[in-house]
Design brief:
Strand order of the largest sheet: 8-9-13-11
Structural class: alpha+beta
Radius of gyration: 29 Å
Shape: elongated
Order of helices and strands: HEEEEEHHHHHHHHEHHEHEEEEEEEE
Number of helices: 12
Number of domains: 2
Length: 367
């Protein structure tokens, strides 16, 4: 029976998605986008908004991953992992625990409660859970976002539900372009149609209301409910179910598409974790100053979870006027300015930041 495997996978996904915001690495969320500082905390590292090349690398990886999953496994995302499917399945599954009389009422109520948890979970990926709970119904911004998200998710589940998959979802529409003759699908065995018991059990349990006996439909989400329903009937006659999964998972495309996605993932990880612990950028300001004086703007980004004390200096014959000792908190940035007075003729200026295990030199023009 496929349903028990689907339920287990949905529970695992729910635990991971809901629990991940509570996991911390180096004192920060394992996965969270911090809006005020425009940085993504990623399992002990941080990606700044200015690092656009990493965003492009991540986009390439997800594009290859989506292509791989869709071409090889078909609509497995829609029927097994899509948050919409998971929420609706949870609502229907929990409702059955209350008996037939209350099942329908509970089935309508549970999505509202689950939507509140979804709304909170979405906020946790931008604001840490502890801070969210403290500010909920205290901060107008957080309260508004929570209520709006809650309302949107609740209304979508109540008025669209499974219809969303068949009418609006762009990924569901895009899947048809990826399918080939070996893509994993659920297909009714027409060669055995005369043996079919015509009980329509497969039609009654279909969450999107299609008849698998009429052939493959673009609305099918490959949830395997029809297979399980048919197995209950055919098992008594010791014959295989009429609808079943069909396709080839292990084939050349599996290896080269999967390999491409793995290479993209590995490249992304190498790019993230091979970055220097501290980034240093310096530029000369076009400011009108007395002869012999120049002003420079600098930006220093701490990419590590370690607090750092850095010293700003120059090996050239110059005098630095301004703050020399800089303190960077973990995963933080400092932006500042410094005046430089030349003690002799100078065409290029070298500024250096140094600290424990850190020494970075940058060159800028001097007038």
């Amino acid at each position: 029976m496929w349903k028990k495997y689907r339920t287990a996978l949905e529970l695992l996904q729910a635990i991971i998605v809901t629990g991940l915001p509570f996991v911390t690495v180096n004192g920060e969320s394992a996965l969270r986008f911090d809006i005020p500082t425009l940085k993504l905390h990623l399992f002990g590292s941080v990606i700044w908004m200015r690092e656009f090349y990493l965003v492009l690398a991540a986009a390439l990886f997800f594009l290859l991953l989506i292509s791989f999953v869709t071409i090889i496994l078909g609509r497995v995302w829609c029927g097994w992992l899509c948050p919409q499917t998971v929420l609706l399945d949870f609502g229907e599954g929990l409702a059955t625990l209350f008996g037939k009389k209350l099942a329908r009422k509970v089935e309508k109520l549970l999505p509202i409660l689950l939507s509140a948890l979804v709304s909170l979970t979405m906020i946790w990926y931008f604001i840490p859970p502890a801070e969210t709970f403290r500010a909920l119904f205290v901060s107008p911004t957080i309260t508004t976002f929570f209520l709006v998200l809650w309302a949107v998710v609740s209304l979508e589940l109540a008025f669209l539900g499974r219809k969303f998959c068949m009418s609006i979802c762009p990924y569901a529409m895009l899947q048809n372009l990826f399918f080939d003759k070996d893509t994993l699908i659920i297909e009714y065995d027409v060669s055995r149609e005369r043996d079919c018991m015509k009980c329509d059990a497969c039609v009654k349990v279909c969450p999107v209301g299609i008849d698998i006996k009429q052939g493959l439909s673009t609305a099918c989400i490959a949830c395997a409910e029809c297979i399980d329903a048919c197995v209950e009937k055919t098992a008594r006659k010791h014959i295989p179910p009429f609808p079943n999964y069909k396709g080839k998972i292990l084939r050349p495309k599996t290896f080269w598409l999967g390999g491409a996605a793995a290479v993209a993932a590995s490249t992304l990880l190498v790019l993230i974790w091979s970055r220097p612990a501290v980034d240093f950028l310096v530029t000369r300001d076009n400011a009108t100053l007395p002869s012999g004086l120049n002003r420079y703007s600098y930006s220093i980004h701490n990419n590590s979870g370690e607090e750092r004390m850095l010293e700003l200096s120059s090996p050239d014959m110059v005098t630095l006027l301004g703050e020399h000792t800089l303190r960077l908190k973990p995963f933080s940035a400092i932006h500042g300015r410094i005046l430089v007075k030349a003690n002799g003729k100078l065409e290029h200026l070298h500024l250096t930041i140094s600290g424990r295990s850190i020494s970075i030199n940058r060159e800028a023009g001097f007038l």
